[in-house]
């Protein structure tokens, strides 16, 4: 591990500013993060968290300012310079080649280059590295065959192979199940105890209080406070700092008014739904063929009523992606039937299913939800054009105006509807998709991880929007590995394991029982 002095900050920024066009991502940030410990950097989407992490890692060159790592001034915007001082960044989107074995991916990711080697020697070398980190991972396994939490563990192992003393993780919990988050936090505490300084970009306050030693708050590219020791602040004081006191009060007031106007039910007061209600979705005995890339569905039956939010709880890799593809008409079924809003839809394509009222928020916003090289207004109107005759005249000016109104309602941070989707942050990409899908024409919403990567205010807005959709007669199937989210808004929860529904849970929900059910344990 690179030698560091213990009397100087691990990271020291002075007057760092970054702009992307007319958008100020960071504005005169000056901060000292002390050596050692786990530091959480928090804020809403567009607050500058990821930009800050990328400046430190040398990926983004600031317009002005200076940066010292372990007391050494680095070349700004130079990854090699940052890495030479002990900085490593683990991105939210994993970068190791999925078709490589763990050992091959670690060799490649560590900069081992191209050369001759014996597989046995390669496996043994990286097995020792993984064992030293107390990671029980077989170096012979393919990256794509590992569960998501172990893929992340390999990314961390790759970062630490260069003897890093400062490890930055951008939204590391976004793709993990509750057990995966617990495993990650255990690894991070162990690394902290060995002297590694850890910086986490996080959204969820509960996770911050569970793992962090100190907190830094960014808002709209500016430093609001920090680093603050965890023991010197309270959870209830953090949310107004993240959102801004005015925005926080307005958000709480708006959510309260909307819940009152639409009589949204609290989960503790929900009773069993009457069985004479119409179905928004009927999945009856659906099975799929086994493939190399998808977990098959086995005799799956799900009914979602109008005026109902059904949560689907599972650990990722148990068939939820297959289920979403089946509902979208993208994967064939070997038996069973599907009805959408009372209409037979088993053999319909996605466009015709959308005409019946189906709306889908996909798992992967970049690959399935958006065309990153297309303009915002084109992405926003794409699903509408998919179900209408293309021979009609299209008025781009009117569409752009509608797009601007919709994105404004969802608080999407953007410059122009003509800018590329790739220019948006991950959270704003998600809000663009939500603004397109959660409209008044929806009769059945399938929402896959709809709040992944969203800040506190946007998460509350999504929950309220789904509740309001339920109140106007829409059915919602919520696919989420976040039990807090499922408990918050679900009328009932189905537990999915290995492509089958194994249990139904009703409120009041029990965290321990739900967690056990998700891994197949009884009780």
Protein topology:
Blueprint: E1 11-20, E2 23-33, E3 38-42, H1 49-56, E4 64-69, E5 72-73, H2 79-84, E6 87-90, H3 102-109, H4 119-132, H5 148-160, E7 166-170, H6 178-193, E8 197-202, H7 205-211, E9 214-219, E10 222-229, H8 235-243, H9 245-261, E11 279-287, E12 300-305, E13 308-313, H10 320-327, E14 335-340, E15 343-344, H11 350-355, E16 358-361, H12 365-369, H13 376-386, H14 396-409, H15 426-437, E17 444-448, H16 456-471, E18 475-480, H17 483-489, E19 492-497, E20 500-505, H18 511-518
Parallel strand pairs: 3-8, 3-9, 6-7, 7-8, 13-18, 13-19, 16-17, 17-18
Antiparallel strand pairs: 1-2, 1-4, 4-5, 9-10, 11-12, 11-14, 14-15, 19-20
Helix pairs in contact: 3-4, 3-5, 8-9, 9-16, 13-14, 13-15
N-end to C-end Cα span: 46 Å
The overall strand count is 20
β-strand amount: 15-25%
Q: What is the CATH superfamily classification of the largest domain? A: P-loop containing nucleotide triphosphate hydrolases
Please mark out the parts with pLDDT under 50 across 5 or more consecutive residues, or reply none: 1-5, 251-256, 258-275
Structural class, from secondary structure content?
alpha/beta
Number of helices: 18
Description:
With 523 residues, the protein is α/β, with parallel strands linked by helices. It has 2 domains: 11-238, 3-Layer(aba) Sandwich (Rossmann fold), CATH 3.40.50; 277-518, 3-Layer(aba) Sandwich (Rossmann fold), CATH 3.40.50. The chain is 35% helix and 23% strand. It is built from 18 helices and 20 strands. The chain has helices at 49-56, 79-84, 102-109, 119-132, 148-160, 178-193, 205-211, 235-243, 245-261, 320-327, 350-355, 365-369, 376-386, 396-409, 426-437, 456-471, 483-489, 511-518; strands at 11-20, 23-33, 38-42, 64-69, 72-73, 87-90, 166-170, 197-202, 214-219, 222-229, 279-287, 300-305, 308-313, 335-340, 343-344, 358-361, 444-448, 475-480, 492-497, 500-505. It has a 6-stranded mixed sheet with strand order 6-7-8-3-9-10, sandwiched between helices. It has a 6-stranded mixed sheet with strand order 16-17-18-13-19-20, sandwiched between helices. Strand 4 (64-69) and strand 5 form a beta hairpin. Helix 8 (235-243) crosses helix 9, helix 13 (376-386) packs across helix 14 (396-409) and helix 13 packs parallel to helix 15. The chain is globular, with a radius of gyration of 24 Å.
